[in-house]
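Our consortium's second objective concerns turning raw sequence data into structural hypotheses that experimental partners can test. To show how far this objective has progressed, the report includes one record in full. It was chosen at random from the queue rather than selected for favorable results. The single chain below, 96 residues long, was entered without modification.
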Amino acid sequence: MSTQFPHLSAREIEVLKELLKGHNNQTIASTLYVAPSTIKAHRKSIYRKLRVHNIQEIFALLARDTTEITFTITIRNPDHVTFEKIFTRLSRSIFE
């Protein structure tokens, strides 16, 4: 699975970012000014589109892709890669 999620809507990406921060439905709803039931619906849609059943499976997908990306970046330019650069590139590839 690619770390890019073009099949998720912009709002689903926002919700996913908040979920990955560990926020619950109520907190996300408050942040995004919507009802908790709306977040629940987005969450179900995200899980369906990513073919997962829970947030732990999303982390597992990202961890698998992180390993691949880190390996690729390190091989290309081992002298100039820091963890911060790798994380920044990973974040951009996931959410842009």
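The partners drew two points from this record. DSSP finds five helices and no strands in the chain. Helices lie at 10-20, 25-32, 36-50, 55-76, 83-95. Both points have been shared with the crystallography group to help prioritize constructs.
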